[in-house]
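Record type: monomer structure entry
Structure origin: computed from sequence
Chain ID: A
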Amino acid sequence: MTNTSEYTRCVYRILISASAGALVILVKGDVERVLFDEPAIHRRLDEIAAQISRDYRDRELSVVAVLHGSLMFVADLLRRIPLPLKLDCVSAASYHGKSQSSGEVVFKEVTVPDVADRDVLILDDILDTGHTLAAIRETVQRAKPRNIQVCVLLSKKRERAREVYPDYVGFEIEDEFVVGYGLDFRERYRNLPYIGVLRKELLEQSSE
């Protein structure tokens, strides 16, 4: 006789897999092409985590995560770093639902993390114009940390409005609008397991 709990777990796994597959099919037409699939992302995270672990060996790390786009990136990366660390989050944005940065960075979480005399690593999903990361770095700097480094999952090859030089970069990409793996467009597509380029028609329709 089949064990009931094991049967239930199997059903849950099937439903989760079916739901994930349905999500991919549902939005497949919205994505022009996939840049990085899930295995490629995880391989790169292994490499970044190993580098960070070496650089901060025998030190305690304070991580400042930029919400909400970095949520999946932060969760997957930190589980690969076997170091003592503290995690704080800030919520800031310069897109405000549009496909281009407005240049105005709005902090939704105004509390500055307590990072005085600590080694700080800022984690963000994407470096684009530089507005958001520059503003966050300046805000954290006011708390007088020992040092600050920046890690981004994606860095766009483009001229920046404000110069920010990340210390760790997952992938460099062209100046295209990407979604998935935490990155959104109007709060959609964050839960895609890959990173892909959004169809230009959807961006054009949003600006009409």
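Annotation 1: The CA atoms of residues 81 and 134 lie 25 Å apart.
Annotation 2: The chain is about 35% helix and 25% strand.
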